[in-house]
Please model this.
Amino acid sequence: MTLKENNEARDRAETTLRGRRILVAKPGLDGHDIGAKIIALALRNAGAEVIYTGLRKSAQYIARTAIDEGVDAVGLSILSGSHCELVAQVVAHLREGGAGDTQVFVGGTIPESDHEQLKALGVRGIYTSDMPLERVINSLAMELN
Amino acid sequence: MIDFTKVEPRLSQMSPSGINVPVRVGADAVHADSIGEPGAYPFTRGIFEDGFRGRLWTIRQYSGFGTAEESNERYRFLLDRGQTGLSVALDLPTQCGLDPNEEMAKPEVGKVGVSLSTLAEAEILFKGIDLGKISTSFTINGTAAIVYAMYLAVADKQGVARDKLTGTIQNDILKEYVARGTWIFPVRPSMRLIADSILYSNTETPRFNPISIAGAHVRDAGATAVEEIAYTLANGLAYVDELLRRGGDVEKFAKRLSFFFYVHMDFFEEVCKFRAARRIWARLMKERYGVLDPKAQHFRFGVVCGGSSLVAPQPYNNVVRVAVETMAAVLGGAQSIFTCALDEAYQIPTEFSAELAVRTQQIIAYESGIGRTVDPLGGSYFVEQHTDQIEAAVLKVMGEIENYGGVEKAIEEGWIQMRLAERALQRKLHIDSGETVVVGQNHFRNPDEVCTPGEVFRLDPAAAGRVIERHQKVLQTRQQSDVERALKRLEAAAAKDKENLLPYLIECCHTYATVGEMVGSLRAQWGEFQEPVRL
Amino acid sequence: MGGANAASPVLDRRALGRRLSVLANADTAAVIALDAQCTPYRPMAQRIGLTGSPGAGKSTLGGRLAVLRSLQRRIGLLAIDPSSPLTGGAILGDRIRMDEVAGVERLYVRSLASRSSADGLAPNISELLVAMDSAGFDELLLETVGVGQVEHAVRHQVDTAVLVLVPGAGDYVQAMKAGIMELADIFVVNKSDLPGAAQLVAEIQGVLHACPPSVTDWVPPVIRTSVSDAHSVAELSAAIDRHQCWLNTHADAAQRQLQRQRYRLRSLLERQLNEMVSSLDPTFLNQPLHQQVQSLLQCLQVGLGASSPRKL
Model:
């Protein structure tokens, strides 16, 4: 991608994200929160309104917060390897609360062999820790459109 | 993603922690008389005058996953291959004080380490391994005192005398609050529990290191080398203060305080940060706490070579990285070295990569000769200047923390966490933009590179089920009245500030009380840490 | 007042969440259009305001208070955080997020960004509070950050105003002097385990006593709280209960309602005007004043949806 294309993508992302509400959550017991915090800050810098849950939240809590806060998207950050189970739990609780249309994104250490399973659960984007931040933000914004 | 193949990276003027590095350094930059000698205060050049010729650093590797039996097998494999100590990783439920059958625990049982819910699991873990002859290091924090109690209980059952036991528990809660997340209780009672475990260990297991104050995790969380040292030494001082508060004798307990850091890729920054840390710590011990015994002034530390400096693209580059980092660790004077496997960045290391990591250390130890003389870089114009500069930068950050009101307050209010998040964002943006070079990831990529893991080590999905089954069995076969009595005594002791909790924890372990139950008793007294979410 | 109303509907959290999002994003024309669709409401929920400077630990306190009060009533917590002036984004909910609490079904938390609002509240805050009201809450807790103007804005939106200070805020108290009486019904000295707490309590009480007795006879209590002391939070809650009781017999509900209606209209118009004026260029501004005013009035009509769009 050229610099020009890159800047255009970023502008589009910022237009999309302005005023959008996004929940960044840490399900399960994984205690590494730096990735989640970086994403939250980057989204804020792109104009979004971000709610960050803090560590060790249950799937019910995450879903309830997503619903009460009327968020457009939920980003789950998981580095413990338990992403398949935890994502399934959150998606189930969102559906139960009538918010099955909330877009779910996953970040962390997600092996490629698990991507299909997550996509089947309805995950719209999978972002591993090595991806450039701008790419993550642009991709997320594109999905929200 | 911007194409970096056309952009030639530059050798930057600044070290990663922001110190200006001159192109040339001459004799005028060094004050020869203040460098000191190895084994002499303030130990800039090393804590032992005979360096590694007296005793080589400990080669320590990571292991532990799935069930206790699988871990036991893996340990015996590694011990056969020349490892001199064991490193035990615990799963998240054990680390967070949950039993494997609890809701939040179930998806995480046995995933990142071994499940150690009761003494029964610990007995399986160490079956056929003589605790009197091996050194065991546990990466455990929130429940460190409990795991340590379990270790002693196993030793009791093996008939091993307590004064023979060697090893470490990480037991460093302050960094958990800011970088690793396996905290349980609020800051004050957690500090008390740590002080109890250290003081108990000093008397009962004098060869055991009851704390490994870690800088590694804040480094991974984005801190610079300078911040890594500063935050960690500040934490160290907080522990010293707590130990003094609880009646410890600094001349005695300081001898068993050890530290633990990452080694990243900037070679001289890493070497010099260790030299600076030794000097700063020794001076603090002497000037602030009046410590006279040189052994109690010693800054002893272990290192991890790898971690977040390793990346998935072109994974064999990581072998080179780990080798460079190991050399920096050796020249920096580390007491123990843990080398990451090349595939650490994207999977659980295979047996092949785990072995290669051990061989890396052995090659450097026995083929390179760099350990032959102590602190060979001492007296180098650049190394001494850089050590001085890092020292000044570290002391500045430590001053900022003191001005804020100290580490505990900074943690409770989320100040350190906020600084780390900002720094991490900066670091990520520098890597994304190519300003910080990561070969294979941003620069010098292979076109059409497909990163396919070679041997993929799969966790047996049924392992968690077996663990839970065994756990249930223990619950059924143990003497419930003994458990309840022991837990009650623990809870009562927790309410009394003067009591040392370790004997009560050991007693609980012997009754096969679970980790969750012991944590529950303590939580009833102390409550839970409320995470300040501050960005 | 207190206690879940048997007639109030079961809370549809999803619908409320969405409605609040629509309202928060509504421009002035949309707000007016939506209002036309609604039946006029009778305010039912008791409103509590919680303000104080950043660092006062107010958000932790607010969380504890909401959790405590949710044991007995349906309570909605609206927490306002500042938007970044640079990027327009915000990190919301920089506060304790409560999992597993006893009254969780009766507790609803909504985080709002202050966005472009000049007074430190959120745009369309009046509409948001009305929407929460219609959803059947017994009580609403409005929490904001800032010193200087937001306390005044909050004062009129709520029935019970609580101002949270921490040791070291002595200067603020002195600066406010008599004005402080108008700001809050209850004063809280938080982090009361810190040195200087007793002194701050004394300073506040000193200022309060120095004020001439007002027509109202509510004497604002000064309460010491500390998040590690659950009893202190209960004390604050009890003070709120007492004030709510007092309001029943002493407050002029009609007057309060009038102030809120004025605020609502004023903020709507201010917002519209601000948006328009900030985009005016020298060509426009160099016209004779009466021409400027005329053009603006016409555009105001358009902006508020009163006639078809026309470029300024």
